[in-house]
Amino acid sequence: MRAHYNALYWGIITVLVVCSLFFTYHVVTFKKGLTAGAGDIRVASGDTVTFVKAIDGDEIAVQAGDANFVVRILGIKAFDPTVNDPQMAGIAARSVAYLDRRLSGRRPSLEFSAFKTDRRKRVLAYVVVEGEDLGRQMVAEGLALVYTLYPFDRMVRYQEIEDRARKEKIGLWGNPVAVERADLLKVIWEQEQEKSDV
Question: What are phi and psi for residue 145, nearest 5 degrees?
């Protein structure tokens, strides 16, 4: 009987690993296709785009005219949905589901003080739908952290909102494991900033 359970256990593990590899391959391939021509993308602050899909809790695929590209939402950092920790994966999945729910069938606008892309050719922008800054709202609902590694013009307001969410234990702030990871990330970002200031 024990051999049966061992075979079942390893069968489940194998299926999970294969699914994880398939998902990771699909996401990487999808992102490469979107960012292939991102160097040619030019959008102005306030331009609307067509939402394609949420890639993770801080990235969305969009279309502007004939161009498809990825937007890295400014000011936030969501947990990775491919992480193998069930508690963290659940929080990450809620962030992705939130973006899909809020943006599906809508044409969000992109806002920024200056057009920029990152080293992965993602357009860096705030995402606004129906007058609401989604990054700010995700911080308020405990679906994302304020990404303090790179200063941004709305950072002080975002941090005030995050402090309130943390105090009220909203979203990720009600999960001790997530709080520990969030605090660790904040320390790492602070150390990175100190290194770059030297």
Answer: -95, 160
